[in-house]
Amino acid sequence: MPAKNYASTRFSGLEEINTSNVANLKLAWSFSTGVVRGHEAAPIVVNNTMYVITPYPNYVYALDLTQPGAPVKWKYEPSPLSSSQGVACCDVVNRGLVYSDNRVFFNTLDNNTIALDANTGQEIWKTKVGDINMGETITMAPLVVKGKVLVGNSGGEMGVRGWLTALNATDGKIAWRAYHTGPDADVLIGANFHPYYQQDQGKELGVTSWPGDAWRIGGGTMWGWISYDPEQNLIFYGTGNPGPWNPDQRPGDNKWTCGIFARDPDTGEARWFYQLSPHDLHDYDGINEQILTGARMGALAAQESYWTYSRGHEMTKRQVHVELLLGEKVFALNGQSIGRLEDIRTVKNRGHYFVSEFLVGNYAVLGRLAAWSIGRALLRIFGAKREDGYRVRWDQLDLSDPQRLRLLCDTDELLPMKTEQFPS
Description:
Blueprint: E1 44-46, E2 49-53, E3 60-64, E4 72-76, E5 98-100, E6 103-107, E7 112-117, E8 123-128, E9 143-145, E10 148-152, E11 163-168, E12 174-179, H1 184-187, H2 205-208, E13 226-229, E14 234-238, E15 259-263, E16 270-275, E17 291-297, E18 300-308, E19 314-318, E20 323-324, E21 330-333, E22 336-340, E23 344-347, E24 352-355, E25 358-360, E26 363-365, E27 369-373, E28 376-380, E29 384-386, E30 391-392, E31 405-407
């Protein structure tokens, strides 16, 4: 599958190529797709066959890896509408195809999802799921979960309304569709929806967090990646930026854009949501993959999901209750308690993301960009300023120095800071 497995780890356990022989690698063969636009799709290898999909016009190739030079076994040309190229916001890319039950599933730029016989390349079914005349395109890699082909749309800059759609893998018929703006019924929010943070709780937030009917063209598309946890029977994915880009035209939190959804793949029913970027000012999105791992902190067994903002912000959350960084739990750096982390919100009029204040030993730190994992916290402090005015770089900080430090935002303006001690 496009991200290697349901956990989206993209990690290969193969060991044939290692540190002892990697220097001996040389070209065995090469293959030209005949397309010169951006290639973003990872090849899929199944049963000695490599499957490759190109950007528009979305050719699909099957290469025979058992033969010298990997000759083409078959080629499929879907012939998408040429006018779809003018609708794509960010190149005419395709992010991949997926193999399941001897079928290859993929999307075309003009909003068709197609199933092919993996052995012959013969078309099995083709379903139109969007409309380029409404500004929609599809660039994402589908995922097959429990007989459902999951597909999302692109075009958050074009006045579209984002959605995730499930098609039956057998016949291509639409099983369910969940929108990312609008009434709860459209978003498939019901009695089993339990977001952890108060900011994401309430009725009809997909309408009331927008001015008037702006939610109808509010973006929140799903052009990225989907992960799946079989134990919980939940899929996890991010939603894109709100539209239009000008934030002054859409006051409010603009639910359910720029956040993470957990859903039941059988019905599409939403189980929880966390909004990474309420009222997104700078097209941060929330699209990148949810990397599912198992982790343990003391006696607490937790399932985590790691993700990286499209602007490089790295964070982690506990899936089950969406407790960002295990919510109010205490974290440690090199075995020492550093404190509790609260919510993440936009610092208004600056457009940067900051984490609530906490202490690292005798340091009071306001974190901006950071990467965390269970049991430890790695602080990436881009600039800090001691109270005596001396500025140091993050990699020059001495944690043995009792001097309290504060992180500056880009305007070099110090933000209010709490000073209470946190329990160890």
